[in-house]
Design a protein that fits this description.
Layout (H helix, E strand, L loop, with lengths): L4 H12 L1 H7 L6 H6 L2 H14 L4 H6 L1 H7 L5 H4 L4 H8 L8 H21 L2 H7 L5 H11 L5 H11 L8 H9 L10 H18 L3 H10 L8
Helix pairs in contact: 1-2, 1-15, 4-9, 4-12, 8-9, 9-10, 13-15
Length: about 230
């Protein structure tokens, strides 16, 4: 049975100190800020997370100005209409990471962003409207409807765009296991529901957003790098 979050918080304080821990805690965007975020920003961060997967993040980030150039500043309407020939040319461009499958995914996700925007007014409106206590549902939707947005990729995407989210880092999973919430990294419906319920309980207990609960959990683990 999971304990009060206070014990996890105290472990994090013991390792990082109050000021050190406070400096690690992210702030999610408000619904208003999310609604005002351009659709291009969502496509850009989707693409960044897709390309980061399997690569050193620094390598991707160093080349990012080139990515923005070849993908037309991530304007979804433009990218969704890229021809196959243009995608093949981009995939051979040495100024970015030459990975055709991920280049193709960018066009697919541009269409995804546009489809959602047509239905909800904007992609930001869709993200803002999703129930706050059902993050797992949103992550599963991204995995099912988007391209290569499952697992950690979807989690980091939401964190980058400012949507309140927890991340299944190895440290967070270790805490969840130690608290008896799960017995391994959650992939089953029952495991994911158990994690959602635990985070909802801890959020109600502390008044803290998921992203801060997640960081505190990571910081409570010895030898944690706290991503």
């Amino acid at each position: 049975m999971k304990s009060s979050f206070q014990s996890i918080y105290e472990s994090a304080i013991a390792r990082k100190g109050e000021e050190g821990l406070a400096a690690l805690l992210p702030l999610p965007k408000s619904k208003t800020e999310m609604q005002a975020t351009p659709d291009a920003s969502f496509l850009e961060e989707m693409t960044r997370c897709v390309f980061r997967s399997g690569f050193a993040w620094k390598t991707i980030d160093n080349k990012w100005p080139n990515f923005r150039k070849v993908f037309a500043e991530f304007n979804p309407k433009v990218v969704a209409n890229f021809s196959d020939e243009r995608l093949e040319s981009i995939a051979q461009d040495p100024s970015i990471i030459r990975y055709y499958a991920k280049v193709l995914v960018t066009r697919e996700n541009a269409a995804f962003v546009m489809d959602i925007a047509r239905e909800h007014g904007s992609f930001g409106q869709f993200i803002a409207e999703w129930p706050e206590d059902d993050l797992i549902g949103l992550l599963l939707f991204l995995k099912r409807v988007g391209s290569r947005l499952g697992g950690h990729t979807g989690q980091y995407f939401l964190r980058l765009v400012g949507r309140d989210t927890f991340i299944f880092s190895s440290e967070v999973v270790r805490v969840l296991i130690a608290e008896g919430v799960i017995d391994k990294e959650p992939t089953s419906k029952s495991g994911l529901k158990a994690v959602q319920d635990a985070f909802n309980d801890w959020r109600e207990e502390t008044g803290l957003p998921y992203c801060q609960l997640s960081r505190i959990m990571a910081a409570s683990v010895p030898d944690s790098l706290v991503p």
